[in-house]
Structure formats: C-alpha cells, structure tokens
Amino acid sequence: MDLCSDILQLRYQLETNLFLKIPKNEYLIILLDSIDQLETDAYDCEWLPIFFSKNVKCIVSTLPDHGDILSNFEIIIYYDPSWIENTQHLLVLVPPFEASTVDSVFNDWRLHR
Question: Comparing 72 with 86, which gets the higher pLDDT?
Fold first, then answer.
C-alpha cells in the first residue's frame, strides 16, 4: 500500500487494497478508539471507509456529544432509530463508568503495568 497524501486517499487505499486482500476465511477487526481526540477537521468522519467486506469489522468509539461526531457517524452508517430492528447492531451506546469502576480499573492498571 502506498503512502497516502490525504485522508480520503487513505480511505480509498483501504477499500481498494487492504480490504480486498483479506482472505475470505480470515477476519480483520479495526478498532478506532476515541476518535473525538482527532483534529476537528476529521469530525465529519468522511475518512472512514464506507464499505466493508463481511469479514472486515470496524469498531469506533467517541464521546457522544463531542463535535457532532456521533451525528456524522449516524449519517454514514445510515442509522435510523425508526428502523431499529435493522440498524440496532450498527450503533451501541455505552453508558459512562461509575466512579467506583473508574477507580478500580485505574488501580488495577497501575498494579499490573
């Protein structure tokens, strides 16, 4: 895969090169955590690939009320709450951790790093 000069070219390279080279009997999982920490010009989510093979899955996380990222993402994945039986698997809202859970995770991380 060539070095990409812009983010849309990267998306094109992923869709036309990398994704097509994943053997049908194997899987690729792409995890993009905290996309709200990207540059603000990436909040439109247009850099995300639109089409994935059945053996390629993409998991994206963001803060729900940050920079309209979630709204932009819903447009890209054609999320429609009125058609929930067909789109509920596309968007999973995860509630914030309780303070005690945050403390527990952080303390466990400190002990095992």
Answer: 72
Question: Which structure tokens are listed for 30?
Answer: 């792409």
First and final C-alpha spacing in the chain: 34
Question: Which conformational region is residue 14 in: left (phi greater than 0), alpha (psi within -120 to 50 degrees), or beta?
Answer: alpha
Distance separating alpha carbons of residues 35 and 69, to the nearest angstrom: 8
Please tell me the pTM assigned to this model. 0.71
Distance CA 30, CA 82 (A): 28
Query: Tokens standing for 103?
Result: 């403390």
CA 72 to CA 69: how far, in whole Å? 5
